[in-house]
Amino acid sequence: MDSYTIHIVGGQTSGGAKIEPDRMRIAELSKRSGVPVPTIKYYLREGLLPSGALTRPNQATYGPDHLRRLRMIRALIEVGGVSVTAIGNVLAAIDGPELPTFELMGAVAGSLDKPQTQSEDDEWASARAEVDAALRRRGWEVDYRTSAMDTLIAVVVRMTQLGYGTWASEALDTYLDAAEAVAELDVEHALRASGRAEMVDGVAVMTVLGEAALSAARRIAHIHVSADRLDYRANEIAHPAPPDLLGREQDPGGASRPGR
Fold first, then answer.
1. What is the CB-side half-sphere exposure of residue 175 using CA atoms within 13 A?
2. What is the distance between the alpha carbons of residues 49 and 34, in angstroms, rounded to a whole number?
3. Between 20 and 30 A from 260 (CA), which of 95, 202, 222, 237?
């Protein structure tokens, strides 16, 4: 177990063994990452976090790579809502055999997809044809076997079943244009990485956190556009003015009236 204490003084531990300046004990790793010690131990047991460097039979130290990976795991779980199992798949791609950059990025992104149940009926075939036509208009080179493709087709199917049969013809191109612009930014950020591990981390982070950011930005935009179209004051809807100190409530026009 890692329940121990190491005091670093001038590069020495209290027991006299040398510790590299960038190494840390598990308590410090927990403090710097914001992840509780028991959770770190769980990640170690599950293989999500590599073992530390043993200094004694039951003692280990951890370095910057451990901290970076721990922060990535925390972000994927807390912000992206990714399951521990899915994170294990991502890390397997990161730690697996060397792959060309393109295949590696695809393996990481693909490990985060959620499989969809295909229904090879007429509705599914029609939706697939609409998605295929939209992609071909753009000349996109994509793998039609990906779970993301099935998800997009499933969206078109469900939209049609719910009475939004014109959604694909009216909105799909706009969604794809927005997605391409975001993907350009994501890949650019990932390719700036200095090494393979950093690049793959970037792909995972940009895929999950970028998706969360895009979803949040879309909801905020809905408030803005709805308020603009309906002539509402979005800020007052989201943050109604509280009564003033004299107990008077503010009316929508900014004047005050006696509280009830």
1. 13
2. 15
3. 237
